[in-house]
Amino acid sequence: MYDGGKIILGLIIFVAFVTFPFYNNIGKASKTPEPKLDTPAIQQMKERKCIEPKGFMRAEHMKLLNRWRDWVVRDGNSIYVASDGKRYAMSLQNTCMNCHSNKKKFCDECHNYVAVKPYCWDCHIAPKESET
Amino acid sequence: MSLSRRDFLKLAGITTLSTLGSVSAVNLLRRDNIEASQVSPRPEALKAKRWAMVVDMRKFKTPEDYKRVIDACHSAHNVPDFGNPKDEVKWIWTDTFEHAFPGQESKYMPEGLKDKPLLLLCNHCDNPPCVRVCPTKATFKRSDGIVMQDMHRCIGCRFCMAACPYGARSFNWRDPRPYIRVENKEYPTRTIGVVEKCTFCTERIAKGLQPACVEESNGALLFGDLEDPDSEVRKALRTNFTIRRKSELGTGPGVYYIIGGSENA
Amino acid sequence: MLEKALTGSRRYWTWIFLLLGISGIGLIFYLKQLSYGLGITGMSRDVSWGFYIGQFTFLVGVAASAVMLVLPYYLHNYKVFGRITILGEFLAVASVTMCLLFIFVDMGQPMRIFNVLLHPTPNSIMFWDAVVLSGYLLLNIIVGWTVLGAEHKDVPPPGWVRPLIYLSIAWAPSIHTVTAFLYSGLPGRHFWLSAIMAARFLASAFSSGPSLLIILALIIRKFTRFDPGREAIQALGKIVTYFMITNVFFLGLEFFTAFYSNIPGHVYTFQYLYSGIEGHGKLVPMMWASNVLALIALILLINPKTRRNEKTLSIAAAAVFLSLWIDKGFGLIVGGFIPNPFERITEYWPTMPETLITLGVWAAGLLMLTVLYKIAVAVKEEETT
């Protein structure tokens, strides 16, 4: 084998580089996210439910928000009729966050866990929260 | 016309196939099961075929009159104040007659009028050059004539700023958040790198309210449907001589000015 | 063939690392711009396009000029250019890449760039510009690489490349025409609102691009064993001469229309650029430098003695390139915004980070050009030995 030393050295560096995420995170398991629903607005509700069933919201909220913004900004609609017939104003800032006023314990909890950084908050103003 | 059994079957087959094809294509394109039929405007929303504004300069007398109107807009929409012209963002502002209507001024016009500030904003053109040039449809014309800006979609190429003959568009050269004096918690701010401008307060019209500037103007700004002969706007246009900025460019501006004479200066 | 770029003299590697270093500095400042916003540049609400878009516009011209080598060879069988069409094609590849980079660094929200494809908008000239530029890039990569590869293997180029070459000949003027349309169709920007804009763009393109090719050909002759040929360089010199005359003529037409009609909107920008308005005259020295350089170039080019002398020809080529770089890369774009729609004057000058980012993009482009030319020259050298 020509240049055997160089090739083996290169391989070692390559393997060390590729496996970096694994050995770097050994013993540092993140805890399962537990989004909190204990805001005053939610606790005052008679029936504690979101605009759509929990399972749907958990899986599809980003798609729903994506559609909302087009419906509001581009089509000039403002009312969303939920599957149970209830009507809501389509607004992340004024509808969603009115109940979920705990962005850190509700939104960020999962988003941080799955390492996504939605840029919603570059523009939309998050509710005031005490630093915890 | 007689159709043989064979031809009929062929035709039927083709029709069925193409219908099935297009349905499945639509299904493929639809990425989720959230239906558009679930949405509607509010019942109280203001409606028009073509929104327009009349600016009655005779009714702007003190600096306070201008400030009230501008502040109403800028605080409602979280428009930042950078305090320097380079980063400036503005939706509604003032400039003198010769700068608002270049080429229309004359040496001997009424003294008071020459230096009197005029109120300027997006003209919500019939034929907006900004919409024509936008490569992503981030700025577009609504069916009610409002030229809208989708800040979610804007890529910040600033072609619209080059195209607008009215200087109505502002770019977020830097993060506006620290420069917003009092945040309106009900309206978003902007992120760096997008273009913004006056939207004729679509968010207020949707709730059945007049635009913020109109509400604060004590009747100096009129807002209404240009296609409705009984609207405030049409009444004002019927009884007054009005001019529009650079209408010779074919843009069809939707903001009309009643300038008035020296007695109103 | 890529392996040919991996072996080279000490000088070659020094040059490569120098360019890498400069683009690295540019990248660092770009990251800074990304976090701070485009406010880091000299651009403002009134002058909303600046150095970046100017460079983009100028380089589209340089890219289009490849056709000046390809067309005579493939349509008129002008053999002298056969040896160096690859230089034109690879220059086009590097230039278009720089164009795309300049567009990218000019964007406020670069991560949303694919919105242009996601929401295709045929009424926007910018959409078409993206289409023609990427098409031209692709055509030149395919054609250049295939023809050079065939030469490397000592076989004639495959037949399918021929139609692509003809397509690229027709395509070249389109990229600069569409780029001119970005500006010449905007109501209210009187300086740009000129039917002759696309023609002016092409004339300046076909003089600045071949000028650069002359300089590059002379450099290649000096530092490698490949000689692009005296006759080819002379032919390029004639092309530059005619197009530079046309370009200056077109500029004269603009002056006439503006000043004889005396319509204020048409006059103001020229006044601002060449004499300054109300004490605002940051660009005046630059614009006069451009004029003087153009004059020097024309004298050296029109006079047969100085055109035939490669030393004076190279001075003329450099003068043309610099003159047009100022005129198009600076004056044309910035001038269009001054005065603003309110007939007020806001001046523009690039900031330090903006200049370094611009240099970084140029270095990246030069790096690409160096590598491509290294490969091409290595293949050419094989033949001579």
Please compute the radius of gyration of chain A using only Cα atoms: 22 Å
The strand count of chain C comes to 0
Query: What percent of residues of chain A adopt helix (DSSP H or I)?
Result: 40-55%
Order of helices and strands of chain C: HHHHHHHHHHHHHH
Helix coverage percent of residues of chain C? Answer: over 70%
Strand content of the residues of chain C, in percent? under 5%
What value does the average pLDDT of chain C take? 94
| Sheet with most strands of chain A | 2 strands, antiparallel
One letter per element, helices H and strands E, the order of chain A comes to HHHHEEHHH
Strand line-up across the major sheet of chain A: 1-2
Uncertain segments of chain A of ≥5 residues (pLDDT<50)? none
What's the N-to-C terminus distance of chain C? 18 Å
Low-confidence stretches of chain C: none
Strand segment tally of chain A: 2
Q: What is the gyration radius of chain C calculated from CA atoms?
A: 21 Å
End-to-end distance of chain A: 60 Å
Shape of chain A: elongated
| Class by SSE composition of chain A | mainly alpha
- Which pair of chains has the greatest number of interface residues, and how are they split between the two chains? B-C, 48 and 45 residues
Helix and strand topology:
The complex is a heterotrimer of chains A (132), B (265) and C (385).
Chain A: H1 4-18, H2 20-24, H3 40-43, H4 54-74, E1 79-81, E2 87-89, H5 92-99, H6 103-113, H7 120-123
Antiparallel strand pairs in A: 1-2
Chain B: H1 5-29, E1 39-40, E2 51-56, H2 63-76, E3 92-96, H3 97-100, H4 111-114, E4 117-121, H5 129-133, E5 139-141, E6 147-149, H6 159-163, E7 170-171, E8 195-196, H7 202-205, H8 212-215, E9 221-225, H9 232-239, E10 255-258
Chain C: H1 10-36, H2 51-64, H3 67-76, H4 85-106, H5 115-118, H6 125-152, H7 161-184, H8 197-223, H9 230-261, H10 264-274, H11 284-302, H12 304-308, H13 310-336, H14 352-384
Helix pairs in contact in C: 1-14, 2-4, 2-7, 2-8, 2-13, 3-7, 4-6, 4-14, 6-7, 7-8, 8-9, 8-13, 9-10, 9-11, 9-13, 11-13
